[in-house]
Amino acid sequence: MDKIIVKGGNRLTGSVNIEGSKNAVLPVLVASLLPVKGSSVLTNVPNLSDVDTLTSLLKLLGAKVETEEGTVKVDSSNGLSYNAPYDLVSKMRASMLVMGPLLARYGKCKIAMPGGCAIGSRPIEQHIKGLEKMGATFRNIDGNIEGHTDGTLKGAKISLDFPSVGATQNLIMAASLADGVTHLENVAMEPEIEDLADYINDMGGRITGAGTSHIVIEGVKELTGVDHKVIPDRIEAGTFMIAAAITNSEITLKNVVADHLLSLVSKLEDMGIKILDNDNEIKVIPSERLKPISVKTMPHPGFPTDMQSQMMALLTTVQGTSTITETIFENRFMHVDEFGNMNADISLENNTAVIKGGIALQGARVKATDLRAAAALILAGLAAEGYTVVTELRHLDRGYVDFHKKLSQLGADIERVSDEGKKREPVTN
Ligand SMILES: CC(=O)N[C@H]1[C@@H](OP(=O)(O)OP(=O)(O)OC[C@H]2O[C@@H](n3ccc(=O)[nH]c3=O)[C@H](O)[C@@H]2O)O[C@H](CO)[C@@H](O)[C@@H]1O
Ligand SMILES: C=C(OP(=O)(O)O)C(=O)O
User: Fold this and answer.
1) Model ipTM over 0.95
2) 235 CA: nearest ligand 1 atom
3) 117 noted as active-site residue
4) Could you report the per-residue pLDDT of 39-56, keeping only the tens digit for each?
5) What pTM was computed for the model?
6) Cβ pair 109, 146 in contact under 8 A
7) 257-272 confidence digits (pLDDT tens)
8) Which atom of ligand 2 is nearest to the CA of 92?
9) Domains defined for the chain, CATH in brackets
10) Alpha carbon nearest to ligand 1 atom 12, residue
């Protein structure tokens, strides 16, 4: 089993390049199933295992996919299959997003129940309810969801109970090829939604309001493949901002959109850290004495759940009592015990973690419990006394490209020890 070994105490310096966003590229790849003409060329695509899993799913569905360093070309103009099997879907929640495009293009889909990080139950009733309003019917058979329409989806007025990112993406894609106009209310406002809408609009779609809570989609007869550059990964960027803060270092992030990171920036500023942004770059200027804070995860533009564990790592090093309340996923505190193994004092009161910070972290052998927890434990290792060994790196590989190499280039004492022959190779087909 691969492991990352980090020796704490080094200051970081220099700059780091941020990759294309995992949470943007996955829906954009799925939307590449929509065009009946031409092919799409996606650039700024991160080399992640989630991207490999999704391109495998697209191929299995009948799309032609060519992958090169940072670029994926998808041609879905040939007939597609409508069956997304368990072995791929179970690896990744984003697989559920193929429901919308398959129903829109073929009037049917068969999808195994989703996977992803074990951070809580991942219900999809908001996806299903919205698609039902557009005329689809569903049944559950042997762990699969089968959906049907009588030919085409119909535009509808849909209000989500909660601004689910996945449901918003699924419904945007479905409505893009539906008959008539769809109004989506109380939808997610994440930057990844805007990226998806921009991509579909460039293909000939008619979507307005993406990035607000009310999106209107006028269905079109067909879409045509286009080139699209994926937006920068705000969560990878945020993770490196915390790396700077936790090591009391000044670093610069390149290829970022500062406006996507406002809630994190505001919290870091409350703690006493200075953040300067200019022209797709962010500079983090640390401070010796940070202040404790309270954080609550919320749908965008609130504080992202995907930054919760990294922020927790930082708060363990800050003198005083901080709190983090997780409102998005009920089981996203599995890293608390791992931080405890590193001498952190964190107690859980329902969905709030109370962090008594400032007790020196001690290097330990810890286990990544999910994707962001993997990064957070490595961040804690940067500040801990002695060596921290982080295992279960398959989680890390879902969402971070060369994390240890980037940290090492910034000056961290870190290495990844691979099991012979088991290292993930980039897909080159
Ligand atoms: C709002 C939010 O922060 N969403 C995050 C979520 O997106 P993702 O699309 O995975 O999740 P959703 O936004 O759909 O779900 C957020 C919440 O809504 C619930 N839910 C969702 C759909 C549904 O049909 N029924 C239902 O109850 C989920 O259980 C969860 O508690 O995980 C991604 C990966 O960590 C993040 O990038 C997203 O920012
Ligand atoms: C948990 C994450 O991803 P997923 O929803 O794909 O599991 C994440 O990006 O932090």
Assistant:
1) yes
2) 37
3) yes
4) 999 999 999 999 999 999
5) 0.95
6) yes
7) 999 999 999 999 999 9
8) 6
9) 3-19+232-417 (3.65.10.10), 22-229 (3.65.10.10)
10) 164
